Amino acid sequence: MDIAYCIICHKNTNILRTTIEILWQGIHVDKKANIEDFYEYTDKVHFMEERIDITWVSFSQIQATLLVLKEVAKKTYDYVCLLSGDCLPLKNSDEISEFLIKHKGKEFIGIQKKTDANELENNIKFEHSNLYLKRYKSVLESIKFKIQRHVGSPKINPGYKSLPSLYKGANWFCLGGELCNYILKYLQENSWYSAAFEKSFCGDEVFFQTIIMNSKYSDKIYNYNGGYDDNHIPLRYIDWNSGPEYPKILAEEDFINIKAVENQDCIFARKFMKI
Hints:
- The protein has one domain.
- The chain is 31% helix and 11% strand.
- By secondary structure, the chain is an alpha/beta fold.
- The mean pLDDT is 90.
- The chain has 9 helices and 9 strands.
- The chain has a 6-stranded mixed β-sheet. The protein has a 3-stranded mixed β-sheet with strand order 5-9-8.
């Protein structure tokens, strides 16, 4: 079983160090980060030469993911697993390989069964300004942002009407190599699709799900009808309920829940304290 583990990160931490020690694979370092901070991994991972300046909830998240998919497409892999620098493997590489062999043919990407239709539509239907996408705003920017939201009508995304039915879910996945190649081919043949997401909000939670669920691969989603949420379907343990942070910053005491029977097929967990 050939598996490509692709990590998108912006900071070198002990969590990232542990993940690489367990998996040894490829890494995309945010363009804002100092690449030299990651040189300790030179003999273990492949660094993406092209780097994206990733900003919160923007199209740059999609761009970085597409970069790694194009890179791994140069070889043949059974599965491509997308991770963040806050992810930690819960199984070793042999155990992960055994699990994926057992479920080969399934696709592990989060798909929400119930979504807020208005929120989902608005995130893609309208063009969002750079100020809208800025996570931390100054007082002056916050005032300007409120004025923009309440005065005038938002500009409609011209590509919205061409989009198929929208689906949403967590943006971390383990996809079969065949499906990854299908996605890249689809985008090559339908350049309008990417353009329709360029000014979206949280488009990375919709972009890949929508392609997949409107394709022949829609019936291959792992445990889609098994009561799993959109974090568990892609084999992730992520606590969106306990707080005080959302998702919760996991610590040693959380491993009691992580190791519970109902989570035995989670092969990664996030997110952990950056140390």
